[in-house]
Amino acid sequence: MNISIIGSGVYGIAVAKLLLLTNENVTMWTEKENINEIEVPNHVILTHDYEESVKDADIIFVLTGTKFVKNILESIKTYIKPSAIIVLGSKGILENGDTPLSLTKKILNNPCAVLSGPTFARDVAALDPVGFTLATDDYGVFETLKEVLNVAYLEYNSDVDAIELLGSLKNAYAIGSGIIAGLNHGYSTSCLYITRIINEIQAILTSLQYDPNSIISLAGIGDLVLTCTSTESRNYTYGSILAASDFEKKKKYLQETTVEGCEALTSFMNMFKEKRIDAPIMTMINEISEGKNDPQTLIGLILN
User: Fold this and answer.
1) Alpha-carbon distance 146 to 141, whole Å?
2) Is the full-model pTM beyond 0.90?
3) Model confidence over 72-88: pLDDT tens digits?
4) Domains of the chain
């Protein structure tokens, strides 16, 4: 099985290490000019060339930031085999509402799957026991991917749109967890918050005619708990900065760091307005992020 990874960031390299445990033919595309500076596992073939990276691939993992996905798909579409499986590991939603999955369906006709779950790159790279949700409407695709990722725990889900959406929702809600931590509240308050947002997420999924029980998954509760309780999460850290009302530090952090949840908030506000979805907690997080409300109001909301 020939495998291609698009993206040589820390997560792409971590997944490469995981794949190499049971697969020999792994090629990685990188945009970085100096290939020698990239610390990749032995036996991974590095290339700048899209054609070289995907032409023989049976499975292509797209592991870049969401804002780069459209350009990548358009760059590889003339080189990939019609049967190649596209695995989307990018978690995000663009301001116009596009997601990696919707872009893939517009640009390619290949079978695809969404890979999501509670997996920090550091843990995957350390080969810690980890688990993923693999969402696809083709169980045969799941079985194929299970063969190449058989060192991890994999769960199947056919509600592909819901699983992908959960990956973006948890980023936005993790900002709220950071706000609570930044206000010096304890784990009991955090658990109250997480329970409340699980209810809100289920309501959002229902409004979009997705299965609300999709949240009971590694991509749902699993990823939500990881992102909402760890200082390794950039979204959580951003929330703690908001709690301090330190606008200079906020500005600097956003300039230096990609905060997926902050980028997603605008997209979700547009979506909720268009589809008339009531999501008071996320709306409050957005208002706090924009400086239109005091961080302490989030506590009053979750107690209401």
Assistant:
1) 9
2) yes
3) 999 999 999 999 999 99
4) 3-158 (3.40.50.720), 161-303 (1.10.1040.10)
